[in-house]
Structure formats: C-alpha cells, structure tokens
Specification:
It is built from eight helices and five strands, in the order E-E-E-H-H-H-E-H-E-H-H-H-H. The longest helix is centred in the C-terminal third of the chain and has 17 residues, at 206-222. By secondary structure, the protein is of the alpha/beta class. Helices cover 36% and strands 16% of the residues. Helix 6 (136-143) packs across helix 7 (155-169). The chain has helices spanning 51-57, 61-64, 70-81, 91-103, 121-128, 136-143, 155-169, 206-222, and strands at 2-10, 21-30, 33-42, 85-88, 117-120. A five-stranded mixed sheet has the order 3-2-1-4-5. Strand 4, helix 4 (91-103) and strand 5 form a beta-alpha-beta unit. The chain has two domains: 2-171, Ribonuclease H-like superfamily/Ribonuclease H (Nucleotidyltransferase, domain 5, 2-Layer Sandwich), CATH 3.30.420; 176-201, no CATH class.
C-alpha cells in the first residue's frame, strides 16, 4: 500500500477569501515504511501573507517572490501523489486549498481525481482520544514523537512529524497482506487480500518503539518507579 503524508502552508486561513498555498510538503510511505522519497516546494502566491500566517510560518512575500507558481509545479505534484492514499491532519483545510489551486488550471480536476483517498488523522485522533487536544503538537507529545525542533510551521517538517504520529497512532492495528509477504505464504498477488488469519508481520518502526518506551516510562512513574513485571516475585 502506498501512502503520501501531506501538509501545506498558506497565506491565510480561507481559500474562499483568495488565500493561496505557499508551501507543499509530502513524504512517501510504502507498506507503512518511510521510503525517504519526498516532494517539497515553496510557491509564489502573488499576494501578501496575512499577519497570523506569516507569524506561524516565518514566510514572507519577499522570500517567496522568486519561487515557482502553483501551475508550474502542479504536474510534478500530481505525479507524486497519484494513486496513493493521502494522510493529512485536518484534511478539509488542505484539500480545500489544493482543490482551489487546481480549479485555476483547465482540466486539472480535483485532488480526489488523482489519489486513492484521504485519511484524516485529526478525525482518527479524536476517535482514539475523545475530549483531548488533537493538534499535531499535542499528538507528538502524547505519542512520544520528538518535535523539539518545530519552532515554526513548515509543510515538509510537519509532514515528517505527521508520518511518525500516524504510524504511532495506528500501531498495533491488524493489517491484511496486500502486496506484502504474509505468514505461511509468499507475496500476495496485486489486489489480493489474504484471509483474516494471515496477518502481516512487520518490523517495529523507531517512532513506534519510542512511543512504547515513553508510555512504559509514564506507567512506571505512576506505579512508584517499577513496572509489575520488573518487581520481584
């Protein structure tokens, strides 16, 4: 399964009011493993940044003025995401802005015409942690993902953090063998789902291991410094 974790930065909060995309960051996952392939572009929006957006991103029109416009990178961007499931935090925001950009290009269609679907990690986090904060920073803290270097919002940085958050958020979920090697058999044929009993074996990713260690440390602290299986019989 191919997934692309995606984030954007914009000149403001509303594409309906003419705000534009100024940065796109994407990272690729294959069978839940980062491939180190990414797509990253700054864009000239042909308009000023709103004060709030400039404050959180550190971007200015002066910096963006010599960058390509969206239509100049659209084909490369669509090629990168084509056929993948997109993983986006607060997907309605990014999809709305990207659809607005695509609407300016004849025949480009919508984002949904180019990808295999969209998974919203904000909705996923709210289901798993009802009533708790679900911002990217809050999830990084809760799931043990190091975001100490995130002093400003940046599309590629946030996509990389979101990839770690998504993997930690969904760790432990049973997965079918789709195009991957499963217990008791060879590689699945393309499009083949193995029976429920044939669950994929996968390696624990560094972010997942770190989240597990952080969780155990929290449990140990609450229980007086030792976990049950560490106490003497």
């Amino acid at each position: 399964m191919r997934q692309v974790v995606l984030d954007t930065e914009t000149t403001g909060l509303s594409w309906e009011k003419g705000n534009r995309v100024v940065e796109i960051g994407c990272v690729e996952l294959i069978e839940r493993r980062p491939t180190r392939r990414h797509f990253h572009r700054y864009l000239n929006p042909d308009r000023e940044m709103e004060p709030g957006a400039a404050e959180v991103t550190g971007l200015t029109l002066e910096f963006l003025r010599d960058k390509p416009r969206f239509h100049e990178v659209a084909e490369e961007f669509l090629d990168f995401i084509r056929g993948a499931e997109l993983v986006i935090h607060n997907a309605a925001f990014d999809v709305g802005f990207l659809d607005a950009e695509l609407a300016r290009l004849p025949g480009a269609g919508r984002l949904a015409d180019h990808c295999a679907g969209v998974l919203d990690t904000l909705a996923l986090a709210k289901q798993r942690f009802p009533g708790q904060r679900a911002s990217l920073d809050a999830l990084c803290k809760r799931l043990g993902v190091d975001n100490g270097h995130r002093t400003l919002h940046g599309a590629l940085l946030d996509a990389e953090l979101l990839a770690d958050v998504y993997l930690a958020l969904t760790s432990g979920q049973g997965e079918f063998a789709l195009g991957a090697e499963a217990e008791g058999g060879g590689p699945a044929e393309e499009g083949e789902l193995r029976p429920l009993a044939a669950v994929v074996r996968r390696r624990i990713l560094p972010a997942e291991a770190e989240a597990h260690r952080a969780r155990l440390a929290g449990v140990a602290k609450k229980s007086g410094g030792k976990l049950l299986w560490e106490t003497e019989a």
